[in-house]
Amino acid sequence: MPERADVVIVGAGFAGLAAAMALREAGIDDVVVIERAASVGGTWRDNTYPGVACDVPSHLYEFANHPHPDWSGVFARGDEIRTYLENVAAVERIAPLLNTPMLDAAWEDGTWRVRTGGSHPGVLAASTLLLACGRLTEPKIPEVPGLESFPGPIFHSARWDHDADLRGARVAVIGTGATAVQLVPELAKVAEVTLFQRTPAWIVPRDDRPYSPAERAAFATDPALLARLRDELYLEGEARFASRSGDRDAASAARAAALDHLAAQVPDRALRRALTPDYAFGCKRVLLSDAFYPALASGAVRLEASALAAVHASTLVAAGGARHEADAVVLATGFESTEQPYAQLVRGETGTLADHWSRGMTSFGSTVVAGFPNMFVLDGPNASLGHNSSVLMIEAQAAYAARTLARHAGVRRVDPAAEAAYSAEIDAAAASTPWIAGGCRNWYVDERSGRLTLLWPGTVDAFRAKLDTDGGEFLPVTIERGAR
C-alpha cells in the first residue's frame, strides 16, 4: 500500500468510481481508492435479495460517459448493475484496495491521515479526503422486545442469507418500503408470507418490460438513439419533481393515478383500505410495482396492518394485538440514513463529523463541510433525489470536487457562514413540501432536528446550476496557497 497520495477515495460504488473518473479527467492521477468489501459495487454488491432491481430506468442509471446498450429491460436487475460497475472499473483501470476499511481519518498538520485495516493495514497520508461511502450501507435493525429470542433464521434484506431454505416456510417480512415491494412477490412464490406493515406506501405502476434483441442491437449500433432515450428519460424524471415536492395539481394527478392502480389490482375493499396511505403523496418515497398488490390480493401474502411490537420465541406479536407464528424473519427495515456511520470515524479541525452533524447533516453545495479542510462528501447531505436518478447528482458532485482540486492548490476551507446560509436555503425550500409537512415519518428527515437532510429539494437542473454558480469560483472556500 502506498504511504501517500494526493487524494484518498473511500468507497468503490457509483460515487467512488465517479470521483476517480472525474479526477483523472481533470489531470489528477495520484489517487488511491479504498473499499471495505471484497469487490466494487456498493449497494448493488450488498443487496442480493430475490427481486432486487433499480426503480430508476436503466438507461438513466448509468454513467454519462459509459452508456450501456445491453440492459435487459426498462429497469435493470441488481446483478446487472453490479456487473456494469465491475466492467466500468475494469475499463477505466480503477483498482481499489479491496477488503480495506477506513478505521478512522484525521486532519493533522495540513494532511489527512487515513488509518486502514483489513488486507492493507497502515496509514495513508493524503492532501484530500473524498468520502464516497454511500448512504444506504448500514442496515437499520428495529428495537423490538424479544427480537433476539427468535429461534429461526433472521436477517436484514441487505444481508440476505442464501443458506436459509425458505421453501414452504412461514416467513415474516417486516416493512413495506422499496425493498419489500420487490421482495414480497418473489418470496411468496416459495414461502408462506406474512407482511408487517407499519405504514402503507403510495405505489404507482412500474410499467417494466424487457428490451427486445432488436432494440438492444439498435442501441448498440446507433449511439444517437441511445442519447435521445436518455434525454427523454431525464426530462420525464425532472417533470416528476412537481408531484413529489407538493405542486397541488401534479400531486393530485399522481395521487389519483396511484389510487386507480390500487383499485384496479385490489378488489377487496377492506384490504384496499388497509393499503391506502393517509398522508400526502410524496411524503414518503413513492414506490413502483405491478406485482406487489396482486401478491396481496391473491391471498398468497397475509397482510398484518400494524407494526411488529414484540417477539416471543417463534411468535410475532403485532401492535394491533394479532399473533403470528413464523419460521424465519426478514427485516426489510431500511438503513441508517440520516446518521451516517462513517461520520464518527472522521475528525476535522475541532471534532468529528458526527459531532458536526449532531443536529443533522449540513454542508455547502451538499459536498463540502466547514471545519473539514480538503474534504468532499459525495451522496451525503441533501444530495439524494426522490424523482430522478441519483447518479446524476453524484456526477455533478464529482465534477465539482475535480474542478476545485484542479484549479486551487493548498488547503481549502469552507466558510462556516456559507454552510449556514446553504443550510438555511435548504430549510426554506423544504418547509412547505410533503417531506416536512406531509403528515408522515420518512427517512429523508433527521428526527433529532426535524430538518430535511437527505433529499435535495429541487431539480437536477437546479442542483447543477447551484454548483456551477455558487461553486464556479469557489468563493465560499478559503484557499491557503502552497500549504500541505
TrEMBL record:
A Pfam family per the record: Pyr_redox_3
Database matches in PANTHER family: FAD_NAD(P)-BINDING DOMAIN-CONTAINING PROTEIN-RELATED, L-ORNITHINE N(5)-MONOOXYGENASE-RELATED
Protein name per its UniProtKB record: NAD(P)/FAD-dependent oxidoreductase
Source organism: Microbacterium protaetiae
Lineage summary: Bacteria, Bacillati, Actinomycetota, Actinomycetes, Micrococcales
